[in-house]
Amino acid sequence: MKHLLEKLENTKLDNRIRLGIMSILMVNDWVDFGAFKEMLGLTDGNLASHMKVLESENYVEMRKLFVGRKPQTSYTATILGRKAFNDHLAALEELLKSGS
Fold first, then answer.
1. What is the rounded CA–CA span in Å between residue 46 and residue 62?
2. HEC-encoded secondary structure of 18-55
3. Which helix (H) or strand (E) holds 89?
4. Is 55:63 a contact under the CB 8 Å cutoff?
5. Residue 80 CA: distances (Å) to CA of 24, 39, 42
6. What is the DSSP-derived secondary structure letter of residue 78?
7. Which residues neighbour 85 within 8 Å (Cβ) at sequence distance 6 or greater?
8. pLDDT band at residue 24, thresholds of 50, 70 and 90?
9. Where do the domains of the chain lie?
10. For the whole model, what pTM was predicted?
11. Burial (Cβ within 10 Å: 0-12, 13-18, ≥19) of residue 100
């Protein structure tokens, strides 16, 4: 069981907010910053700090556009991020199965 826990600790997805972010990105191509704030109930600073962690791991890609005169920041899951998310879920499933 220890090796299963190590699999979960070796990813930045052990945090519930980052797991929520990646869950949203797994079913959406691009999601803007405001939508994340609303869906997850986060402040600008809290969301930005979690996005920075995911960006540093290359789990998400950021895109900045201007809509009218307002900047709009959107995110998508990278191939690496999708793999990390799926591996994380697989490790959770293994852990659950080992306990039964």
1. 17
2. HHHHHHHHHCCCCEEHHHHHHHHCCCHHHHHHHHHHHH
3. helix 79-98
4. no
5. 16, 24, 25
6. -
7. 13, 22, 23, 26, 59, 77
8. very high
9. 2-98
10. 0.87
11. exposed
Q: What is the CA radius of gyration of the chain?
A: 15
- Tens of pLDDT, residue by residue over 47-69, are 999 999 999 999 999 999 998 89
Output phi, psi for 66, to 5 deg. Answer: -110, 125
Write the single-letter amino acid at 84: A
Q: What is the mean pLDDT of residues 22-32?
A: 97
User: In whole angstroms, what is the distance from residue 70 CA to residue 65 CA?
Assistant: 8
pLDDT at 7 over 90: no
- As a whole number of angstroms, the distance between CA 66 and CA 42 comes to 23
DSSP state of 14: G
pLDDT number for residue 74:
97
Encoded tokens for 62: 């950021």
The CATH architecture annotation of domain 2-98 reads Orthogonal Bundle (1.10)
Distance (Å, rounded) from C-alpha 91 to C-alpha 3? 10
